[in-house]
Predict the structure.
Amino acid sequence: MREKTVLVIDDDEMNLQIAKMVLEKKVKCRVICVDNGREGIEILRNERVNLVLLDIMMPEFDGIETLKEIRADDNLKNIPVMMLTAMSGVENLKKVYTLGVKDYIKKPFMPADLISRVNKKFAELEPDETILLLGTDIEELKSMQKLIEKIFDRESVIATNEAEAQKILNENKITLVVADAEIKFVDGFRILNFVSNESKLAEVPFTLTTSEKILELVEKINAPKVEVNNKNKLANVVTSLIGYELDVHV
């Protein structure tokens, strides 16, 4: 699965160094460190970040101001945030709570506590859906992957041949198979046959589409006239709109 990324925003250089060293070594995640909230916002707008560790007390554009800006941005508002604070002031905690943050780590933090809290948060954030993307054009598949992960915030994996697809299907909980419409018929048929004959995979939706069709699908999902019982479930969304959004549904 894709490596997770943590953004640490803290004006204390020692805290940044410790957090980076500990998390990269023990949690095995990518860590980006910045010393102010404004730079942190720019990182969030240009990088895929799974978790933000945000210091409350910073001399310019403090943690509460930074958090307000994150929550006010439609593209950033759902990014999980944990506060780093040396203060236990009730007022500050109330402010971040009203902005949707219930988790905070007291400073100075112990490495073991930091590791435990971040691992626990990652476990809570694990998606319950993983999409398998099939095809022979790796660039087209990466384009689809980028769209799905950005728009639906779902994990996705890529397979370019039958062997890779079978291995992924056997080893992972796949809830939707999306094949590039340009996939070779024989390859697509073999994979479909494998999915159909495996009892644990028989109910997994199997669709053929393109990056352009995915964009059209997103537009339909966001349209007020479209009603989907569980908008956050990508498989449900796709199967609900299958008749006119995707080229083929097998």
In short: Residues 130-249 form a domain with the Rossmann fold fold (CATH 3.40.50.2300).
